[in-house]
Amino acid sequence: MKKFFALALALAMTVSLAACGGGSTPPASGSGSAGSAAASGGSDKVYKVAMICDSSISDGGWGAACYNAMEAAAADLGWETNYADSVAQSDYANSMTGFCDMGYDMIFLPGNQYSDATVQVAKDYPDIAFAVLNGATTLPTENITSILPDANQIGYMAGALAGLMSKTNVLGFIGGMEIDTTKAKLAGFEKAAKAINPDITVLSAYAGSFNDVAKGMELANGMISQKADVFFGDASAVDSGARQAIDAANGSGEIAIFDIGQPADLVALGQNPCLIGSVVTDNAGMLKLAMQDVEAGTFGGKTIYGSFDNQCLTVGTFNDDLVSADVQTSYMEYINQMAAGTFPG
Amino acid sequence: MDIGELILSTVRMATPILMVALAELYSERAGLVNIGLDGIMAFGALTGFMVSFLSGSPFLGIVAGACGGVLINMIYAYCTISLCAPQIVYGMAINIFAPAVASFIYRVYFGVSSTLAQATLMPTVAIPGLKDIPFLGKLLFDQTPMVYFAYLMVVFTAIFFNRTKAGLNYKSVGEYPKAAETLGINVIRQKYVACIICGALAGIGGAYLTTCYVNTYSDGVVAGRGFIALSAVIFGRWSAGGVLMACLLFGFCDALQLRLQIFNTSTPYQLFQMIPYLFTLAALAVLGIKKSGPASNGKPYMREER
Question: Whole-prediction pTM value?
Answer without folding.
Answer: 0.82
